[in-house]
Design brief:
heterodimer; A: 392 residues; alpha+beta; 5-stranded antiparallel sheet; 4-stranded mixed sheet; 12 strands; B: alpha+beta; Alpha-Beta Plaits; 3 domains; 5-stranded mixed sheet; 4-stranded antiparallel sheet; globular
Chain lengths: 392, 481
């Protein structure tokens, strides 16, 4: 490839030799030969042990896949080490899953087991595993997430650090397949949810809790005010002119739910705040149509302290939810299906999470989430209501 | 298509294929010398104190911090003469993140509009707001690179990417971004065109989507290594990506638009949750049953779910309790010898197949269910894709799906408001309009969970006898005031 400041590119003749619209490289050239040979011919699979899969083809061929958990953010040195391993054991082929795990595919069980041992032996200088094997079957797998404080302008919290902390906490569930069903954890560092965590068994969400600051000196110069106004889904923003004649906006704080859509449109209305920003936990979502329909994740903890570097409150809460679920759910029951069966009132009772007013939906179509049946279970919180209302 | 003829550029099975050696930037010797031993890494201190981040080196999960420190030392050893952006970017990145951990607020500014000539997406401008303290990362843009299907790579290709990323960028990547792209994190504006030049010329690759355009389509690995795949996800994703290159690179939409391709209803790429246009594999004939294998599951000779429950003692496998009774439509039976399925009543949820993959398989008359409208919460609230076309055969060149795609996109470009996702537009104008007026197809109960309960139907004039034009005088003759 090219070297030097501009390489082959000639800034004086920008169109010279320009190629566009080539699209991604064709996938087939990156498939290991045994995968090409058996493409579309697979008949079944087994998980031989955590982190080791075997797929069987109608041709009689078998492939062995070793799965390792990986952070989403990796250095090229880490990727080169993966390449070295792939060259040594897998004829130079490697892939990643949709959830940031790396997978090494081989044609022999013996090679796969040697590879697995090798992978589990490699550690970072700080002591963490470089390539921990696992993430298969009824457990957790790598936590997908967003950019956070490493690379984004809108986050309420960091992604890589919180994910590392939670993954450490749930590491046993990554290494062993002992949950009632798969458990998918996802993390988005603001409501924009570029990580689309809204259908995860457990979703961690960075959340702003203060209305935007308005930079009156800049907003008129750097933003299209009508676009800022239109960006607000709750019509909380109005145009105003200051006594000095500056064009700016005002925000009706009572209507703001801190979505940050205005900030996406305009840099002059920042939301981030050291004290205000918090972590919200949602649970019970899923994507697959297995047994029950796909489900959205539901908020069960409105705000936990945004507490770097280890987010202890978040880790403890996640651990508590997962441990209760692991103990109480039936085989095959995803977290959301378990909560639906025992009733959300029982979910809050069993997990000990406080049910607060924040969890009553008051956005659009909120009524769809209200209970309109006399079928419910009595819990302490229900008796409190009866007492408060003079019923008992 | 400029890629034509380059489909096998990197193919090791083909003579004269391109190798890493042909295009490498760093020599073997350079990389070897820049590599560090464990002792060197342990002794290495970056120039900023990072007490909070150091806490994230502890614990078993792979530490991003340890990894970025390793890259910092690697860059130092390669030396500034061998790097096109500042050698100290990895150190400054850790420094600015540490500062964010102290301030509990990000130090990245709103992105500016930057990119490569002729494209309107794929590069996200990123500037640091603490440039005096961290001058090396003052400009630190992201480049999204369209990933190969199924995230399969060979090491020649990926080492090439690593070299570009390190030589002309920070040496830090995302494997992968949420939408699926291979991401280079952090470079300067000046380096965008040289990176693009090398990517297109030497790597045979291209950048991905951002902004109001088609986002980089993504797929599950499908037929490459999964027995559940009901269609060729990787071929269809590649074909659709190539057909919609203009939409991918040149923003002309009201907002983002995502294609995702999942081979079966297990939906490993989250198509139903995340894609404006979700292609999910399905079948319309009968589930294939191997009765002998069913007996082996019942006898406990094959573990359920491929062995995925092995970490805990769940007791012996009970086919009645674990399969027959959990079937959402109760369309299965087990008489102690034979498993029966009333396939007409099956909704293809995959449970029985997931439990007993060695005994049950999807049918052979396969295709996709096409769904539209999923999105994350911003702005009107999260939505999942809705069943629009129950079954379509999908065969190259996928003209049937492309024709529908173009209809939908043209309508959305015409009617959609700024930053209104397709699903929100459908919500605003009504599903009836989308199905009947835009797609011009009949309606069906499969698109809904239940019929509407409010009676506010917009009857059309043509379906009401006599139409809507009436004479008030005639009315008054019968009904005087």
């Amino acid at each position: 490839m090219s070297k030097g400041k501009f390489g082959y590119y000639n800034p004086k003749k920008m169109m010279e030799g320009r190629i566009t619209d080539v699209g991604p490289p064709h996938y087939e050239q990156f498939l290991p030969p045994i995968i090409r040979k058996n493409y579309g011919k697979w008949v079944s699979h087994r998980i031989l042990e955590p982190g080791l899969l075997m797929h069987v083809s109608e041709t009689g061929d078998k492939v062995y896949t070793v799965r390792v958990g990986q952070p989403r953010l990796v250095s090229v040195e880490n990727v080169r080490e993966i390449c070295d391993i792939a060259d040594k054991y897998c004829d130079g082929y490697v892939r990643w899953t949709t959830r940031n795990n790396a997978e090494f595919i081989t044609d022999s069980e013996e090679k796969a087991r040697a590879l697995k041992k090798d992978l589990d032996s490699r550690k970072h200088s700080g002591g963490s595993f470089k390539f921990p094997t696992g993430g298969t079957g009824m457990g957790i797998t790598a936590i997908v997430h967003t950019q956070g404080w490493f690379h984004c302008h809108t986050p309420a919290t960091d992604a890589s650090g919180m994910v590392k902390s939670v993954a450490d906490t749930l590491f046993d569930y990554f290494k062993e397949m002992k949950l009632p069903a798969k458990l998918r954890v996802s993390m988005a560092c603001c409501l924009n949810m570029c990580g689309a965590v809204h259908c995860s068994d457990i979703a961690l969400l960075g959340y702003h809790r203060k209305p935007p600051l308005i930079d009156h000196d800049w907003i008129g110069k750097m933003c299209e005010i009508p676009l800022v106004i239109a960006a607000c889904p709750l019509y909380a923003i109005k145009p105003v002119t200051t006594p000095e004649g500056k064009r700016t906006i005002s925000i009706n704080y009572d209507k703001c739910m801190f979505c940050g859509n205005c900030y996406t449109m305009c840099a002059a209305v920042p939301l981030a705040d050291k004290e205000g920003d918090c972590v919200t936990i949602l649970v019970g979502g899923k994507i697959s149509s297995r047994i029950t329909h796909p489900k959205f994740s539901k908020i069960v903890v409105p705000a936990l302290p945004n507490n770097p570097p280890r987010w202890t409150e978040v880790c403890d809460t996640v651990k508590k939810i997962v441990d209760v679920y692991a103990k109480d759910a039936n085989k095959y029951e995803r977290l959301g299906d378990w909560a639906a069966r025992i009733g959300w009132e029982r979910f809050f009772e069993k997990t000990g999470l406080p049910f607060t007013w924040h969890l009553l939906d008051d956005y659009r179509l909120a009524y769809d989430t209200y209970r309109t049946s006399t079928q419910f279970k009595f819990t302490e919180q229900a008796w409190e209501v009866s007492k408060a209302a003079g019923g008992i | 298509m400029a890629a034509e003829g380059q489909e096998k550029l990197w193919d090791r099975e083909v003579k004269d294929h391109r190798t890493y050696k042909d295009i490498r930037i760093f020599t073997e010797d350079q990389l070897k010398k820049a590599a560090s031993t464990d002792e060197e890494l342990k002794a290495f201190k970056i120039k900023h104190a990072t007490p909070q981040l150091d806490e994230l080196e502890k614990g078993p999960w792979p530490s991003v911090i340890s990894d970025v420190k390793r890259e910092a030392l690697h860059r130092k050893k390669l030396g500034q003469d061998n790097l096109m952006i500042p050698e100290g970017v990895a150190e400054d990145l850790l420094g600015v993140v540490e500062l964010a951990y102290v301030d509990k607020e990000t130090h990245w500014k709103h992105g500016g509009i930057i990119g490569v000539l002729g494209y309107g997406g794929g590069v996200i401008g990123r500037y640091c707001d603490a440039q005096e303290k961290f001058p090396n990362i003052a400009h630190f843009h992201t480049i999204r690179i369209n990933q190969p299907g199924g995230h399969f790579y060979n090491t020649d290709y990926i080492r090439g990417l690593c070299d570009i990323c390190e030589y002309r960028g920070s040496g830090i990547m995302n494997m992968h971004g949420s939408t699926g792209d291979t991401i280079f994190l952090g470079t300067t504006t000046e380096q965008l065109e040289p990176i693009f030049f090398d990517l297109t010329h030497d790597m045979g690759g291209d950048i991905g989507g951002s902004g109001s355009n088609l986002r980089t389509p993504s797929d599950c690995l499908g037929m490459a290594r999964c027995e559940f795949a009901c269609y060729d996800t990787m071929d269809m994703c590649y074909d659709m990506t190539m057909s919609f290159q203009d939409e991918l690179h040149r923003p002309a939409f009201p907002y983002k638009y995502k294609f995702k391709f999942s081979g079966c209803p297990n939906d490993c790429v989250a198509a139903i949750a995340r894609a404006d246009q979700s292609h999910i594999g399905t079948w319309k004939d009968d589930i294939r049953i191997n009765q002998e294998a069913v007996k082996e599951y019942v006898a406990g000779k094959i573990p359920p779910d491929g062995g995925g429950f092995a970490g805990r003692d769940w007791g012996p496998f009970d086919i009645q309790k674990e399969v027959i009774d959990l079937c959402p439509t109760k369309c299965m039976g087990w008489d102690g010898k034979k498993l029966s399925i009333n396939n007409a009543e099956c909704t293809r949820c995959m449970h029985c197949i997931d439990v007993m993959p060695e005994a049950l398989r999807p049918g052979v008359d396969t295709g996709i269910t096409l769904l539209f409208g999923a999105k994350a919460p911003i702005l009107e609230g999260a939505q999942m894709s809705l069943v629009t076309i129950p079954f379509m055969y999908v065969k190259k060149p996928y003209d049937n799906v492309k024709e529908i795609t173009r209809k939908v996109q043209e309508w959305w470009m015409e009617e959609g408001k700024n930053r209104e996702r397709l699903g929100e537009l459908i919500q605003r104008v009504g599903l009836r309009t989308f199905i009947m007026d835009v797609l011009g197809i009949p309606v069906m109960p499969q698109s809904i969970k239940e019929p509407r309960s409010n009676p506010y139907m917009f009857f059309k004039e043509a379906e009401v006898p006599g139409g809507w034009t009436r004479d008030i005088k005639e009315f008054r003759k019968k009904h005087p005031l």
